[in-house]
Amino acid sequence: MLATPVDTFEATLRACAPRLAPGAIVTDVGSVKGPLVERMEALVPAGIKVVGAHPVAGKEKTGVAAASSDLFRNALCILTPTSQTDPDALAKVRLLWEACGAHVHEMDPMVHDRVLGAISHLPHVLAFALVNTIAMIQERHLPGLDLQSFAGGGYKDSTRIAASSPEMWRDICLWNRNNLLSQIELYEARLGHIKALLKAGDAEGLTREFTRAKQLREMIT
Amino acid sequence: MLATPVDTFEATLRACAPRLAPGAIVTDVGSVKGPLVERMEALVPAGIKVVGAHPVAGKEKTGVAAASSDLFRNALCILTPTSQTDPDALAKVRLLWEACGAHVHEMDPMVHDRVLGAISHLPHVLAFALVNTIAMIQERHLPGLDLQSFAGGGYKDSTRIAASSPEMWRDICLWNRNNLLSQIELYEARLGHIKALLKAGDAEGLTREFTRAKQLREMIT
To answer: For burial by CB atoms within 10 Å, which of A6, A27, B9, B104 has the most?
Structure first.
């Protein structure tokens, strides 16, 4: 039986708690904030200050060998203060991230989880599903071919994040399960719409759908 | 009423046909081969040689300003000879692509469409759907926020191809509609499986699913 992600998180915090000096600031770099910031605040001893933080930067690689000294330069770092957050602790954690070159943005922890569910967790789940679909198509319809050997930049870019840590993404998905489930359902509806347009041979509908995506995507670099 | 893709293709070929010298080779760079190679072979005058070609390289940008002199260097180019293909014409087209630095692979036109449906057309459709889902989530659940402004490398990479030409991808999707529809359905099943694991809180199942994707994706760079 695997420990649940929150169990693992709690166990780490409980192990650290007795060693924290009065006035110490506890901060993190987790990808989910709502349930964890709440739990951190409940678990630390009196006098210890909690500041939730999420640097939105990372790679599909893990471990010391994958370290990069400019990982946070010009990256976004989201801090998630609550009504309990100490303003001085918040300011210190902000300075820490700014010193690493990050742009700091503050956000409610629950809003954070909805935003990141959509813009980060959902794309990861979709990438894992795409790679596994390629395996299925190969097994069922193209045995003997190595489908990935025909990949151009499109597939490679869109599945790069499928090489991310399975354990980390399992935990993120479970922590942010409710947001993610409703966002997956919206995605299914959107994909279902394209499928319906394709079935109907609706060239104008497809142009409209693809143009909308292109225009939105071109708003960022 | 829009012209169907095949109509556009036919019109171009019909306009060129009277100007082709005897022995001329007609080749193309289209992303779908099955129905088009067949049509090309049926439409060219006697003595004209058809060779279907698909360089698997490109960018989300179009037009002369987006040209790149090394676009085809080390890229894959798939040639799709049929029983009617002239071996000398095939060899010449192969030399042309090799001179551009491409690695040439020969494949049956129908197999080509299934392979590229999976490894190229499907990822494009999924990227268009993802960007439009982000728009939906923003409108419905996070009005006032610009969701894309919180994007890290994951979303950016996985949606880069959503900025591709809507007209070109409309045509590719319609040409390869049957393969694409069945592949979208396999994708829906795979995503549905992840959704079920999430709903059940099945940590081991999620780890298995994500690990399988990671292992397969790491087989290519």
So the answer is: B9
Beta-carbon separation of B152 and A209 below 8 A: no
Q: What is the dihedral of CA B10, B14, B20, B25, to 10 degrees?
A: 10
B99 burial class (0-12, 13-18, 19+ CB within 10 angstroms)?
exposed
Q: What is the pTM of this model?
A: 0.91
Q: pLDDT of A18-48, one tens digit each?
A: 899 999 999 999 899 998 899 999 999 999 9
- Which residue is listed with tokens 């770092």? A77
Residues near B42 by beta carbon (within 8 Å), at least 6 away in sequence: none
Type of residue at B170: R
Closest CA to A103 of A82, A73, A81, A80: A73
Distance in angstroms (rounded) separating the CA atoms of residues B190 and B209: 10
Q: What ipTM score was computed for the predicted complex, to two decimals? A: 0.92
User: In terms of Cα–Cα distance, which of B61, B174, B192 is closest to B121?
Assistant: B174
Cβ within 8 Å of residue B127, ≥6 positions away: A154, A158, A213, B158, B159, B160, B161, B162
- Name residues 161-220 of chain B within 8 A of A (Cβ): 161-167, 169-170, 173-174, 177, 180-181, 183-192, 194-195, 198-199, 201, 203-204, 206-207, 209-214, 216-220
Sign of CA dihedral B55, B58, B62, B66: negative
Structure tokens at B158: 């996985």
**What is the full DSSP assignment across A27-57?**
E---S--HHHHHHHHHHSPTT-EEE-EEEE-
pLDDT computed for residue A194 by the predictor? 98
How many Å apart are CA B100 and CA B74, to the nearest integer?
9
Which pair of tokens denotes residue A58? 């990372």
Q: Are B118 and A200 in contact (CB under 8 A)?
A: no
Shortest distance between the Cα of A23 and any Cα of chain B, in A, equals: 32
Q: What's the CA gap between A37 and A51, in Å, rounded?
A: 8
